[in-house]
Amino acid sequence: MSCIRHYASLKIDPMILTKINEILPGVPYGIGNSREFLTACKEGNHEKVTLMLESNKWFAHIFDGSGQSALHWAVRRGHTRIVRILLAAGTWIDSLDYIGRSPLFLAVRAENLEMIDLLLLNKASFRVKTRAGTRIFEGVTRAEVKALFHKHLKKVGFAESDN
After folding, report:
1. What is the pTM for the complete model shown?
2. Are 75 and 83 in contact (CB under 8 A)?
3. Where are the ANK repeats (predicted)?
């Protein structure tokens, strides 16, 4: 349901929402040149990513054989500029791979403070759990990561007991 709200927030015509499965890739690499696009995201090739998104905005929603989106890969590789491009293109910030990891989960595990901050500023959900039930900030020991998380919690009005 949250993905439908996401596409509605992008001002996609409600009549198209009923046919969303015909538009969006429902299988890994579901659009021609998907591998090329994911490779550009993995390599941090912002010119190619921008050009490909200009030719087909749906590249922002493709995923690979493990369910990882272009956003997952850009976060994993620490490509902040690619992440910004993908977010501006409307990629779903809380997309989950096949084991339930969100891009924010990957940023937290990598302890990438800049990426964590960017994703939280763009309203990534910190409440998402993996399929195994692991919370995003569970097991974090680095003080800077914890401090950043608590800063964002306060900003959105959550008490520590809410997380």
Report:
1. 0.82
2. yes
3. 66-98, 99-131
